[in-house]
Design brief:
Order of helices and strands: EEEHHHEEE
Structural class: alpha+beta
Number of strands: 6
Radius of gyration: 16 Å
Distance between the termini: 23 Å
Oligomer: single chain
Number of domains: 1
Strand content: 35-45%
Number of helices: 3
Helix content: 25-40%
């Protein structure tokens, strides 16, 4: 059993995991659009997923916003802060501003409850 796993009285297993999201937020209207999400099993996998999303976004943004996105991709100190936050159980968010849109990349710890038949539910 993984060190972050625990068992409930009913035999189901709780496993530490992380939920990653990419959201586009339009401050002028207050609307948000969910772009992508993915469960991962470690802070390092969360970093990889968010980095992939940042690179995909950078390819679609104007030059200054793309530069900001790519700057985060090579910022080792920012990555270490993200890994530490997730390891300590905190939410991590990174915003990439573009004209009229804020692209928000986030990762947070969640508990996965794995049932005996290997079905699971996510609690956010």
């Amino acid at each position: 059993m993984h060190p972050n796993d625990a068992r409930r009285e009913d035999g189901s297993r709780l496993s530490a995991a992380y939920w990653c999201e990419a959201v586009a937020h339009l401050p002028a209207s207050g609307h948000s659009f969910w772009l992508a999400a993915c469960p991962v099993s470690s802070p390092r996998e969360a970093l990889c997923w968010l980095a992939d999303r940042a690179e995909r976004l950078a390819e679609q943004l104007d030059a200054s916003a793309a530069e900001a996105a790519r700057g985060w991709l090579v910022d080792a100190l920012a990555h270490e802060r993200m890994l530490l936050a997730l390891t300590e159980g905190s939410l991590f968010m990174h915003t990439i501003p573009d004209e009229g849109v804020r692209h928000i990349l986030s990762a947070r710890p969640v508990q996965l409850q794995v049932q005996a038949r290997e079905h699971f539910s996510v609690t956010i």
